[in-house]
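Protein record
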Amino acid sequence: MSEVKHVEFKKQSPWRIKRYYLYAFATVVSIVVPWITINGNHFFLLSFDKMKLHLLFVQFDMQELYLMPFLLMILFIGIFGITVFGGRVFCGWLCPQTIFRVVYRDFIETKLLRLRRSIKNKQKEPDMSKPENRVKKAVAIAIWSFLSILAASDFMWYFVPPEDFFKYLANPADHMIMIGFVIGVAVFLIADIVFIKENFCVYVCPYSRVQSVLYDEHTIMAIYDEYRGGKIYDEHHHKLAKSQKEVKEINGENALCTACESCVTVCPTHIDIRKGLQLECINCLECVDACTNVMAKFKEPSLVRWSSEYETAFRKGKTQYFRPKIIGYIVVLTLVIAGLIFMASKKEHMLLNINKDNRNYYIHVLPRGCDLKTDKNCKVRVDNAYIFLLQNIQKTKMKYYFEVKPDIKVNGKLFVKSPSKPFWVKPRVKNKDILVISTYDKLVSNPDNDTIIPITIHAYALDKNGKPDKKISVTRKATFVFPREDLLPK
């Protein structure tokens, strides 16, 4: 019975299988999400073509890109927080580079084409002197080239939605920038995954340099238990023991490391985890699985664990997962997310810019030619002109209207002279026109200077019943200039 359990335990590779499940889930999500729309809006879409941002199925105009800094802060704070907590776990579990390398090396080259003998040995490259291996390599590159185009297209769908992407493909001559971008990304993926390989993680990616600043003694990582396994390298990373016999001679008979180097050959970045913390480690935990299978033969736990230096190397006690630094990251990330939600909730459902005309005011005596002293119907009207730019960001034709009110107490009323009636604006169309705000009253009495009166301009859309739509409503602050007394006709 114990022998059966031993065999079952030996066959298990829990971390690798869990990673594969996460890779499959991330792949499905990344492909499916661009196709999901609610009321024509995407979960995330940054369209430079239509100058729109879709976030959580809400559409924002480019003027509302103040949300982008929040998204970038969430991205970087999240990754930094994950690094403090679990090292380069992002690299091993979520990074597209790692996922693509697993697909190409472990699935295409190893499982599908048998170009590599085993996924347990990632350091031995195939013998390309054999003709059959060269054919298999060409087939592997061809398969990956197709997948690279698919991956590049999927990436493009977050900037050009699928419904537009395939329409544009029907007229390639008119959309060469998009097609060139897809081809460029695909070529990069082929060069990166087939030829550069994990050298990208080791030498190119800046994340490995950043992580060393973020680590502390409680950071979880793949770590070799030197107390149980024995010392293999000295402090200068010079190898002390190359065989199990040498391990025991140096560390004593209780040292458990067999010097089989299964943890070394399985490492995708070609490091020896027994040296200690190394920038090249991506926390894929392949070495943990390899050592687990070897130590299972001796009914011992793995010598390589996903643990912290505090617990494994320093033997100070249990790892503190929710320490002040982690709590700080959680608090900051929560505040940024709350800020994003708050700012997104302030989204305006119409775009409106209002700028004062160069001339302060216009004075009219109406009807023209009348005598203010003798004609009771003769009035003085003061006009202020504004240039407004209004865009209907709804999907249907909307009718808009303006209202105005002063922000301070004045001796009279202001009204919108033009446009005096609701006007229609087609969807996605910008309407530029003149807004004229007027008064027949002597708002203030100032014999020395013109008076600047702060006002609020309210623009709103009318619903199907001809009533103001509370959702499509914005206000803008402006000023109304009233002339000094000696400029007004007597």
The two ends are 113 Å apart (CA to CA). Residues 1-11 have pLDDT under 50 and may be disordered.
